[in-house]
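Next comes one such specimen:
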Amino acid sequence: MSLTDILELNKTELFAKIRDGLPLAQRTQNLLDCKDDLLFAWDAKECCLLVRNWRSSLAADVNVQFQTLIPSSTVSLEVDRVLASNECSLVALSGPRGVTILELPRRWGPEGYYKDGKARITCRTFGLDTQLFLNNPHLEVRQLRWHPHSVSDSTLLVLLNNNTIRVYNHSKLRHVWQVGPSFRRGEANSSLCDFGEVAVDFDIAPAKKPVDTEPATENESTLDKSNRTLIAAKSVPKQDKIEWPLVVLRENGNIYVLMTGLDSDNTRLQGPITITPQTQDNYGLESCALLIIPSLPPTVVIAESNGKLHHALLMEAEGTEHSFNEVDDFVLIEPAEYVIHVLETVELELGLAASGAGGVAGASYNYPVYLKRDLINEMRYFAYHNAGLHAVTVSFISELQRYLDSESEEDRLELAASSRAEYILCTKFDSSESVNAVFGLALLQIPAGVVLLLGSGQVISLKLVIDAQLLVTPNENKQACLDVTQQESGPSFVDTIKSLLQRSVNQPILAEKLSSPSAQESYELLNQAIEVLREQYLKRHDLVRAAFARHINQIQLKKEQQLQEIQDLEHERELISERAHKLAERFEEISYSQELLVRKCNGLMQKANAALPNNVVAEREFAQEVARLNTVTQSIAAGLEGAKKTLNKQRYHIAKSQEDLKKNAYELPEKQHRTITEILTQLTGEIDRQITDVKRINKIVGV
């Protein structure tokens, strides 16, 4: 067993397939995710999601190595983030140019796999606002998070680089929340980006009750107060309303809070939030990530690209503070109800300097830092980047919890303990420009561990040490019940190819010069044409070729899957037919046996009734008469049957004798028969004539 691969994942077929489709660009992304005992991994080559039960795979005998979840519709995104929902019913596949949702099937069987360990499963998928991304080439996804309070486990919040958060419930767009100034289409390099006013990350803080936004005025009469109270009583539902603070981080370090309900169009944007103690750089001019730890009060972690992590507390302000910001003139901003107090700053070591190199290690490196919470230990979170992985433990959270649990009034809160950052994995230990970025990070639970996928294809699986006192009480399982809406088919393959072939520059018609161009001008023109040909044609053709290969692989995979499913269905149909035939035969046998039993029971009942000692004479005589009539009827029926047989026998003999007579009868030839007929006709005429003469003579004679 390797010390850097406790689960021996490098030898598995799952990660062998993942290595074949790893992207060439070395930038930090997250192609892994883990929920309970399921490890999800995105296969970019075949555009499908691979899943493995890492807990059951620890046993020696493993029947199912992994399962392949095939999307029902083509996934044309360059997926760089895999995020499973809270209850693991959906998986969000995110890329810079869109988001696709994949519905997970049901789990059953001894090992807890989907559909009892079926190797390949076609899963329902739908894209989110695919047409929006096709029509806006500069639009990109910055962050996405599943809402923790979604009863149906299907509410997804997506942050775009136009300072909007789009709320989806399955495939339906529910709300669009503006969290900053918007810029027009095609203004990707506008002043908003130059001043760092674009939101880069957000997180959801613990819920709170909304504040009454309509205070009573001094000149308000008693009647007005009673009318307003009556109207409010009719409009407010029985359940208490709650608001979720969405903490939004901008690139320049400013933090805003968006107060809104889960299913409400009414939002209140507050900010920029006052950060204390104040500094000249506003705690980071290159902010890249934000994380909320649900302590009391909530802990805010702000990450910078230079490796600095600021730990702060999000506290309610004593009074609302009005903020001034010229960039937000067209955005309605309310007075801030919160303040942020920074307690400490932790500086991470982004890579190790090469041997013999002077200066501070990692001082020249500048990478985007990504943050991920540890669901088991609420005091710990992870920071991963191009240079490896850090585990950061926030020590003052335990002191806050101890102070809140204490019942002593003399107890004092001392936040003197400093946090601890542990460099778990380093992938940058030389001065070269090449990096080995983290392509995936998954946190395992019970036993606790971590799985990392590096850009080189290597898989790191380590165990983590956890204090039992820091275990978080698991939340109750939420019942997922939502009517499935009509899925979006997503963009067609033709539209995808057209978008890939669409050039970002236009080539004008070259006018002829009066004099022939010099050799230098011709050389520069040739170089420019070659550069345009490479960047705008050949490169895009390579992208189209890769898209075709990906599409063909996906179609072939679907075809194989459908053929296999057809064979399985045919086999199931044969089994069902055989079972139905056997059941029909069994039913006939049972019906016949039931009829016999009914007859026997009737006979026994009749005999029992006849043999009863207290039976009256009339009933006994009636029974005897019925028996006699039954005997007579049977004899008559037997005689009738014998008569029928005799009649049939006589009819048979009569028919046979008639056939024999027909065979023995002599028939004259047709010519003789005609001659005899003519002679008889003549004789008949002669006899008639003689009779007439005799009558005439008698009349004359008077006889």
